[in-house]
Each structure stands twice: as structure tokens, then as C-alpha cells.
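Homework help board

Subject: predicted structure for assignment chain

Our instructor gave us this sequence and asked us to write out the predicted structure in C-alpha cell form, then describe one feature. I got the C-alpha cells but I'm not sure how to describe them. Can anyone check?
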Amino acid sequence: MEDLLFELQLAMPQVILGVINGAFYALLSLGLAVIFGMLNVINFAHGAQFMMGAFVAWMLLSYLGIGYWPALLLAPLIVGAIGVAMERLMISRLYKLDHLYGLLLTFGCALVIEGLFRNNFGSSGQRYAPPREFQALDLELGDFFLPGYRVWVLIAATAVCLATWLVIEKTKIGSYLRAATERPQLVQAFGINVPLMMTLTYGAGVALAAFAGVLAAPIYSVHPAMGANFIITVFAVVVIGGMGSIMGAIVTGFLLGFVQGITDVLYPEASQTVVFVIMAIVLLTRPAGLFGRA
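My C-alpha cell output:
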């Protein structure tokens, strides 16, 4: 029994950190699922928009002296507005074409955005310190110290994920969005501006990525490639949960973060590949994903 308790104490830090990573997976995959589920666009620029959220927060602090709390609201709004401009100028022209065109366009946008930030800020990371008030949330679990800011990330990510799910699944606005994806002409006949709704939906998905970027800024160094480090895993999360499934994105994000934490304890060499092994198994047994519909 004592050996088992000792093993659990050793495993707890990695599992908790895995769940916190899962919070970022859930937020990012949620934005992807919203955009794909409502607009049928595979947004490969999502990682770059996540990075933009972190950089906007850093620039607000460095150049304007605007701290973390206002940046948590302003950065998603700014990056979301850039997403609205992208949708109006480019992505809206591709809705009637194959998904591949949207993927290639957004992949090109991601390369351009990342290149612009690398050209202006270099490849080295920028430090963004978390507010001191989070020290009140610091937790000591035996020999393991969990910074209060990571506790806040878990709480904030969970709250935003649940709020987004409630808006889409349980409100009249959400029902309009779901109807507009399936019968846009019918919805427009009732006087609803479907193109504007689709534009705002893309902007909201981008804002979710930027919100995750602001949350990530004090944990990871702010650098142009930070989005690329997440986006491949996040796409795997979306595929496992089911393309376009809101609940699938949230549950699978947290679950796979937990699985990565466990794997990091039991077999560290496989912690970065376990997600893709699970994705392969899911695609072979349930191609629509765990929560998706065929």
C-alpha cells in the first residue's frame, strides 16, 4: 500500500500538468470545431491566431502598459476582428468550393502571419509574467508545488468551454447558427443575415484561439512558433472527438491531456505520440469520431 501511495504521489504532478495542457487543447479544438461545424472550413491558421493572442497581450503590456486582465478581454477582440477581416476578404469566397481550398488558404495565412512575427520579433521567446494576485491560489500537494496561475488556467478554460457549449446548444442564437449551416436559404428567408452570422462565427472561433493564447503567455514563452507546437495535436483532438462536435472537442481535449500526463509517467518516450496512436485507432474503428455523426 505504501508503495502504491508513493507511486501515486510521483504520478500526480505529471497528471495535473497533463490536464492543464488538456485545457489548452480543449480551448483550441473548441475554436476549430466551431469554425468547421458552422462554416465547414478547416482553419489551419488557428495556431497562428493562438500565437497572435499571446503576442497582442505581450505588446499591450510592453508598449501601452496594459496589464493582464484588460488584455484577457482586448486581445481576443483584436485578434477576432482580424479574423473577421480575413473571413470577409478571403475565406467567404471559398464556401462553395472543396474543403481543400480553405485548408490551403488558411495554411498559407498561417505561414504569412508566423513569418511576419518572426521578421519583427525574432525567434527567441518574450517573457510575460503572470499577475501577482495568483499567488493566493498556489497549491502545495505533498512535495509538488502547483502555481496558482495554472489553477486559474484550468478554471478559466473550463468555464469558457462550458459557456460556449451552452450558447451553441441551448440558446436561440445557437439554433440559428446550426440551422444556417444546413439550410442557409431558408434561414435567410426569415430575415436573418446569414453571411454576417458566418463572419461573426469565424471571428468568435478565432477569438477563442486568441483567448487561449493570452492564457498561455505567462506559462510558455511568447514566440512566433508557439502555435505550431500545439496545432498538430489539436487537429488530432478534433478528429478524435468528431469534426465539428462542440462537446467532442471539449471532452476529448481534457481527456487526451490526462492521457498524456499518465503516459508521461508510465512511458515518457510515448507521451508525444500517444495522441496520434489513439487517433489512428479511432479512425479505424469509428471514422466519424467519438462524438461525431457519420
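Reply (TA_rk): Your C-alpha cells look well-formed. For the description, you could write something like this. Confidence is low (pLDDT under 50) at residues 1-6. That's the kind of observation they're looking for.
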